[in-house]
Amino acid sequence: MSKKNIVLIGFMGTGKTVTGRVLAERTGMELVDMDSIIEERAGKPISDIFANEGEPAFRKLERALANELSQREGLIISTGGGVVLDPDNMADFHNGGLVVCLTASPETIFQRLENDTTRPLLSGDKKKQISGILETRKPLYDAIEHQIDGDRLDSEGRAEAILKLYE
Ligand code: S3P
């Protein structure tokens, strides 16, 4: 029997990775982290890809990987926050997958990422950058049918809510 993928979407710092880990433990499904795969294959961190080849080159790698992973089954896919920018990614993920969007307030995101140095899009005034990017992407995240409130729920609660949708 085929098992659909669970696709975790959401802005940076909304808890996709940690929620994916809990889901993998609870279900025994394989967890794949898109950013980690891109880094492994490129042999360098995302920040280097952005700095050396530019964001469009990163988005191309992300696009190809979204397509590749969508053709597999039974995966928990932790995506990068910008995967929503390409409608083809979303079409692929929705094709046979359960797509959920994790949300968090800008304050929570700021607290989580305040000392992070790995996100190339947050390299200046983080508060400003978070609210600016969130605002432009809001319609894309809001368009996802299943929203999981990451401010109200901890990672266990988020996994629980996602598994209810997966039944
Ligand atoms: C990005 C989010 C990052 C990573 C890259 C770009 C974005 O992933 O893919 O830095 O555009 O929101 P996380 O959401 O895991 O931080």
Automatic annotation (TrEMBL):
Cellular component aspect of the GO annotation: cytosol
- Amino-acid biosynthesis as a keyword of this entry, yes or no, is yes
- Choose any GO biological process term that the UniProt entry carries and state it: aromatic amino acid family biosynthetic process
Which GO-annotated molecular functions does the record name? ATP binding; magnesium ion binding; shikimate kinase activity
Q: Which InterPro entries match?
A: P-loop_NTPase, Shikimate/glucono_kinase, Shikimate_kinase/TSH1
Binding note for cofactor: Binds 1 Mg(2+) ion per subunit.
Species annotation = Tichowtungia aerotolerans
Q: What is this protein called?
A: Shikimate kinase
Residues annotated as binding substrate are 35, 59, 81, 137
Which residues bind Mg(2+) per the record?
17
Where does it mainly reside? Answer: cytoplasm
The pathway it acts in is:
Metabolic intermediate biosynthesis; chorismate biosynthesis; chorismate from D-erythrose 4-phosphate and phosphoenolpyruvate: step 5/7
Q: Where in the cell is it found?
A: Cytoplasm
Family per record: Belongs to the shikimate kinase family.
Class of this enzyme: transferase
What is the annotated quaternary arrangement, including any partners? Monomer.
Write down the CDD domains for this protein, in alphabetical order.
Answer: SK
Give residues annotated as binding ATP.
Answer: 13-18, 119
According to UniProt, the reaction catalysed is: shikimate + ATP = 3-phosphoshikimate + ADP + H(+)
Please list the cofactors this protein needs. Mg(2+)
Q: What Enzyme Commission number(s) does the record list for this chain?
A: 2.7.1.71
